[in-house]
Specification:
Distance between the termini of chain B: 30 Å
Helix content of chain B: 25-40%
Order of helices and strands of chain A: HHHHHHHHHHHH
Number of strands of chain B: 9
Strand order of the largest sheet of chain B: 4-7-6-5
Oligomer: heterodimer
Largest sheet of chain A: none
Structural class of chain A: mainly alpha
Distance between the termini of chain A: 53 Å
Bound molecules: iron/sulfur cluster
Number of helices of chain B: 10
């Protein structure tokens, strides 16, 4: 019995610890890249080469901070929020073939399941903003809900285009199909769906052209305004875990996952995801923030029709290709 | 109570184990290291010193090197840098923000104004030093302190935290006597002024018609309204601008003792706040104003500070809260 428990728990433990390590250093990477782009140095004096102990110091400090719960807030939901977000964003990693062997859960519809799980995050965000009893948190959460629900549509549809071309919804199939050419090199449809995916991934991950829910000059720090100490650390980590999940998804669906030009290994997924993350960082530190109505209008008027057009094109293409090959 | 005693006893037995002291000291050191290596300041600035603080955060001096990033929410901040002049109205907000910060928390008072009030310390609206309101750990002198001084202050604070002084205590220096804090004494009555403005004066009953006329002639922009206390009477000055022909007109009104004049805010909506300011500082009543309340001084202020007869130790007291009242804030707020 004990052995079976170990067998069950060990891969979870391995994945989570590797993930937390990667994510902690993503924060450090972000601070370094931001510093380089603003011709600063970034974290330097905490830990000898280039402040490499900074994530550790931040985490330890957040653990020792007071835990404040605002008066008249719904303390059950208030405490549930960060835990929910963290659990959901870690759970979605069970489906990704991201660690050195296969995914922990191998199902046929793994792509659909991944999307379904990761879209539960918004519930955690909503309850934490709602239960804070703070007007800024509430406004931020309303914006965030509108934004994430509407950007989920182009995100899913743009990811369906490669899936239709490949004819499968499982990550294993998708990776196997791309052994010769990656989807991003598929004429027209590959690039179109990648661009739509990229824009909606920025909005999903709440990054700068779309970071309305954390607009510091307007909303203090959005739905995390009332959180201190370790709960805030959970939010902070979960945001990066989620974003990293989206990066891994992009690297699997568009950049061939574990297939590389010289060798094939699952470590390539992580490397590609990191490169993708750096691209997102460059965008984050060089763009401005857009207004909420512009954000929604851009989505409903431009992105969604475009992604549906791409979907239609992919269906037609698939139909005639199958037809001619009969 | 029994539980507490039992757990104290447990700690006692734990401390008798070999190496327990070492363990506790080294975890303490670890957490102190973490606290001092990731000080997140509240993004918050008051006056000219704040500009220099921003310069310290940005490219050339870069406090991110020391692991400091600003947080906008007080719940997540560890450090409050009070950079600038603390006014009476702001002092309450500073106290609130300080209370909202989750502990352990530290305060740096930067600049002579935050330390002692500097050259403004005798002005009716300025608090002579932020340590009247909240406890301060490190004082950084200068007007404004240079970025190097800021960094020095932060390193000093890091030393203090590293030594394990985790919770700052209130500044326990003895409360100064009332007398030393009383404002400058005014011995002579102010001189009568003979200065009279020669430009156009209109009658105050004529104000509305006159400005309606001017507005129909194209003077659609109210540049400003101001008031001057000439000791014998108060003169209101209006400046209107014409954005097409680029001309401006000026006219004045002499006020009687009743200090009443009709409001222009229905004609020029820009007059709204300016009239409130003049009401606040001079006590002139604008009849027909939609919302004539104080705008700069706290609501419960007594007197109008820019009037000639406003002397700081007059019966228009309180010119500012006393040390005792600040001490009361510390305990009550
Ligand atoms: S100390 Fe000097 S620079 Fe700083 S707020 Fe006062 S007057 Fe301004």
């Amino acid at each position: 019995m004990f052995n079976s428990f170990i067998e069950f728990a060990l891969p979870i433990f391995k994945t989570i610890s590797i993930l937390i390590l990667i994510v902690a250093y993503l924060v450090w990477l972000e601070r370094k890249v931001a510093a380089k782009m603003q011709s600063r140095v970034g974290p330097y004096s905490v830990g000898y080469p280039h402040g490499w102990l900074q994530p550790l110091a931040d985490a330890l400090k957040l653990m020792t901070k007071d835990d404040s719960i605002p008066k008249n807030s719904d303390s059950l939901l208030f405490n549930l929020g960060p835990v929910w977000i963290m659990v959901v964003s870690l759970a979605s990693f069970a489906l990704l073939p991201f660690y050195f062997n296969n995914p922990m859960l191998n199902v046929d519809l793994s792509f659909m399941l991944f999307i379904a799980i990761s879209s539960l995050i918004i519930i955690g965000i909503f309850i934490s903003g709602w239960s804070s009893n703070n007007k800024y948190a509430l406004i931020s959460v309303l914006r965030m809900t509108a934004q994430i629900i509407s950007y989920e549509i182009p995100l899913v549809i743009s990811l369906l285009i490669p899936c239709i071309l490949i004819g499968s919804l499982s990550f294993g199939e998708i990776i196997r199909y791309q052994e010769d050419t990656w989807i991003i090199f598929y004429p027209l449809l590959g690039q179109l769906s990648f661009i739509i995916f990229f824009i909606s991934a920025l909005a999903e991950g709440n990054r700068i052209p779309f970071d309305l829910s954390e607009a510091e000059s307007e909303l203090i720090s959005g739905y995390t305004t009332e959180y201190s100490g370790i709960k805030f650390a959970l939010f902070y980590l979960a945001e990066y875990v989620h974003l990293f999940g989206i990066c891994v998804l992009g690297s699997i669906i568009f950049f061939g996952g574990s297939n590389g030009p010289f060798f094939s290994s699952n470590i390539l997924i992580v490397i590609k995801a990191l490169l993708f993350f750096t691209l997102i960082l460059f965008i984050r530190w060089s763009f401005f923030r857009i207004r909420i109505d512009q954000l929604l209008k851009f989505n409903w008027v431009k992105l969604i029709p475009l992604s549906f057009a791409g979907l239609l094109l992919a269906c037609l293409l698939k139909y005639y290709m199958d037809f001619s090959s009969l | 109570m029994g539980d507490v005693n039992k757990s104290l006893k447990d700690i006692g037995t734990f401390m008798k184990l070999p190496g327990a002291n070492l363990f506790i000291t080294s975890t303490d050191q670890l957490f102190n290291w973490a606290k001092k290596s990731s000080l997140w300041p509240l993004s918050f600035g008051l006056a000219c010193c704040a500009i220099e603080m921003m310069a310290t955060f940005s490219s050339r001096y870069d406090l991110d090197r020391l692991g400091m990033i600003t947080r906008a929410s007080p719940r997540q901040a560890d450090l409050m840098i009070v950079a600038g002049t603390v006014t009476v109205k702001m002092a309450e907000r500073i106290k609130t923000l300080y209370d909202q910060m989750a502990g352990p928390k530290w305060v740096i008072a930067a600049g002579s104004c935050a330390i002692s009030g500097d050259h403004y310390r005798h002005i009716y609206s300025v608090v002579p030093g932020v340590d009247w309101v909240i406890p301060v750990d490190v004082y950084v002198p200068g007007c404004p302190p240079t970025p190097e001084a800021f960094i020095d202050g932060i390193l000093e604070l890091q030393n203090i935290i590293g030594e394990g002084k985790t919770s700052p205590t209130f500044n326990s220096s003895p409360v100064p006597e009332e007398k030393t804090l009383s404002p400058l004494e005014v011995t002579k009555p102010p001189k009568k002024s003979k200065n009279v403005i020669e430009s156009e004066f209109i009658d105050k009953t004529n104000l509305i018609n006159h400005s309606m006329d001017l507005k129909s002639q194209g003077f659609t922009y109210l540049k400003f309204i101001t008031a001057t206390d000439f000791d014998t009477n108060i003169v209101l000055t209006y400046f209107l601008g014409n954005n097409v022909s680029n001309k401006e007109v000026e006219f004045n009104i002499k006020l009687d003792d009743d200090m009443k004049v009709s409001s222009l805010s229905n004609i020029y909506s820009g007059a709204d706040w300016q009239e409130r300011e003049i009401f606040d500082l001079f006590g002139i009543i604008f009849e027909g104003h939609p919302n004539l309340k104080r705008i700069m001084m706290p609501d419960e202020w007594i007197g109008h500070p820019l009037r000639k007869e406003y002397v700081m130790d007059s019966h228009y007291y309180p010119y500012r809260p006393t040390r005792k009242e600040y001490e009361k804030w510390k305990t009550e707020l």
